[in-house]
Amino acid sequence: MAALKILPSETKSISLYKSLRLKFMMCCASIYFNQQHLAKKMFLNCAKIKILYASATYITKKKVQTSHLKGEIKFLYMKKKHVTKKLMYYSCAKTE
After folding, report:
1. Residues 6+ apart with CB under 8 A from 21
2. Residues 86, 17: Cα–Cα separation, whole Å
3. Measured CA distances, 56 to 38, 51, 59, 78 (Å)
4. What pTM value is reported for the model?
5. Other C-beta atoms lying within 10 Å of the C-beta of residue 23
6. How many whole angstroms separate alpha carbon 27 and alpha carbon 95?
7. Burial degree of 31 (CB within 10 A; 0-12, 13-18, 19+)
8. How many helices (H) and strands (E) does the chain have?
9. Under DSSP, is residue 29 helix (H, G, I), strand (E, B) or coil?
């Protein structure tokens, strides 16, 4: 089997494509992770919210955590869309 010959001018585009693909995969993994936590109602303690313990404050704390997670999922979908556009551009440019 003959080895592929890659020109020095192509190495930059190949490494850029690989990094974009890695970003895309990490974004998909983060979206899945956050959706699973949202479905199972498991919240990370990344945002330390100090509220006195009472029933009303407990409900408020859960709503804040839920809205934070939903906002993060929306942000990840926007990031995924942006990375997908770049991937399509480089994959089309690579084939020409």
Report:
1. 87
2. 9
3. 21, 10, 5, 33
4. 0.73
5. 16
6. 25
7. middle
8. 2, 0
9. helix
Proportion of the chain in helix, strand, coil states, percent, rounded to 5? 75, 0, 25
Cβ atoms < 10 Å from Cβ of 83:
20
CA separation, residue 87 to residues 40, 64, 68 (Å): 32, 34, 28
> How many Cβ atoms are within 10 Å of 66's Cβ, its own excluded?
13
Spatial distance between the Cα atoms of 66 and 72, rounded to a whole number of angstroms: 10
Give pLDDT tens digits for 23-64: 999 999 999 999 998 899 887 766 566 667 777 777 888 888
Number of Cβ atoms within 10 Å of the Cβ of 28: 13
